[in-house]
Design a protein that fits this description.
244 residues; two-stranded antiparallel sheet; nine-stranded mixed β-barrel; 13% helix; alpha+beta; globular
């Protein structure tokens, strides 16, 4: 049964009269294997740029100073090979994603690039919006379905919407693999949309807003595209690497 069919059927198990779980309420199915389409910014995303190549990122003076001091050997010595694989850098990498529902209110996003795992936790009305604790490469992400005007109001018709996710509690890392920094005060807001072509190809578009009061002068906004693959045949896990 499709997710849309589940959402239009009988009320799911849970609190009487309460909101349905995020999985049942989904206006589209984000699950499956997805490959990053890197048709722009190739020289910054597919290879490690030279030190100081910070073009297009609105760095503050302090951000530029830190970027120009990048030393991958120091990262390796400190055991921080994954600094470019935190959530803000990971999503721009040459990665494949495997997206599944971990439970009815948690979307799990695994990457073969650096073997990272993100959890998008959908907050329920009256419930907790996320967990605190130690800062991590993938931080803490809360999510919600944002329905288009009129989406989900009628019976039997198609529903349209996006996932809005907000990530905080990030461990300091890199926006670009050559040491362009983001701090532990960073907030990353994403809007995830599904687009289906007439030939049936599906694309997941992640509009990504990184806001860092320490190293950025203004929010950095990019749009990342992923194409759905039929299976895990091209899944190619690799460990974090500070240089390549």
């Amino acid at each position: 049964m499709s997710l849309l069919a589940q959402g239009r059927g009988a009320a799911p198990a849970g609190r009487a009269g309460g909101p349905p779980p995020a999985k049942a309420a989904a206006p589209f199915d984000p699950t499956g294997y997805w490959v990053a389409i890197i048709s722009e910014d190739w020289r910054w995303r597919m290879v490690t740029p030279a030190k100081g190549d910070v073009v297009s990122i609105p760095l503050s003076a302090e951000g530029l100073r830190v970027a120009e001091a990048w030393d991958p050997a120091k990262d390796e010595a400190a055991g921080e090979q994954c600094k470019a694989y935190g959530a803000p850098g990971l999503m721009r990498g040459p990665t494949r994603l495997h997206i599944t529902w971990q439970d009815d209110n948690t979307l799990k996003i695994e990457s073969d690039y650096g073997q990272q795992t993100r959890l998008l936790r959908f907050a329920q009305a009256g419930g907790a919006s996320g967990a605190g604790g130690v800062k991590a490469w993938q931080g803490v992400t809360t999510a919600q379905w944002v329905m288009a005007a009129g989406g989900g109001r009628g019976r039997g018709g198609p529903r349209h919407g996006s996932i809005k996710s907000v990530t905080t509690q990030l461990r300091p890392g890199y926006l670009r693999k050559n040491g362009v920094p983001y701090s532990d005060r960073t907030t990353m807001t994403e809007y995830w949309d599904l687009h289906t072509e007439t030939n049936g190809d599906e694309y997941l578009v992640d509009t990504n807003v990184v806001d860092d009061p320490v190293y950025l002068q203004t929010p950095w906004i990019t749009s990342l595209h992923f194409k759905k693959e039929k299976d895990a045949g091209k899944w190619d896990p690799s460990t974090c690497d500070a240089r390549f």
